[in-house]
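Work Package 3 (structural annotation) set out to generate three-dimensional models for the target panel prioritized at the project kickoff. During this period the team completed the workflow that converts sequence records into discrete structure tokens, so that structures can be stored uniformly alongside our sequence database. As a representative example, we reproduce one entry of 267 residues exactly as it appears in the project archive.
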Amino acid sequence: MRRIFEVYGALFKVSTAVQLQYRASMVIWLISTVLQPVVYLVVWSNVAESRGGSAGGFTTTDFAAYFIVLMIVDHLTFDWHMWEYDYRIREGLLSPLLLRPLHPIHADIADNIAYKLLSLLVMVPAAVALTFLFRPALDPPLWALLAALPAVLLAAAVRFLTSWAVAMAAFWTTRIDAINNIYFVTELFFSGRLAPLALLPAPLPFIATLLPFRWALAFPVELVMGRLTPRETIMGLLAQLIWVGLSLVLLRLVWRAGVRRYAAFGA
């Protein structure tokens, strides 16, 4: 265990240094992270107002709470490495990573966490400013807030592992943008990012419960808002654990198969 902490400590230092070298890119990504939920918030708030102040059981202040919480949860759980493996394999950048005594996924985990810790310095003030601006209705019970911590951690694990498994398609094709885009659009509809899942027409909410996307985003958001019962919370946490296990098995299988057929490209 001590060795793991030492390794991750070194990886965090490297990842933090790299992130600080790309401050302009970080600012651009953060602006996008804040603007997207704000746009959805304004759109759905206008829909609610046009329908007498409520849409699908959500008032304007409920929409404000939903999308502000979603902004923070999305930031804490998202992963971008599925967009990088095409380049890593095509340019031969994976080869030196395979020679290290540590699985490449650990460097990506450290990179992911380092970015999020740094950018929270901007995300938290942005959430506070949006709270004062839109006045969200947010009063969850204490047990829901306590349960939200493992829910967010498991959501991050589900999202990271599933996207990393999708990234392994790059072992079979060096042009995986189409696969990534299909994955992204599917997540957009079934994760609750575009709208609360309760507003989707049947049978889309039911389909969402069968896919990992709800458990990687919408579930912890609904939990923080206090819209779930204790039984629904327990079932949700179990669903997250199941998807973590399934994602680990899938990732392990595709990684082994991919590495066996890997051929380095680039100079």
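The CA atoms of residues 77 and 156 lie 4 Å apart.
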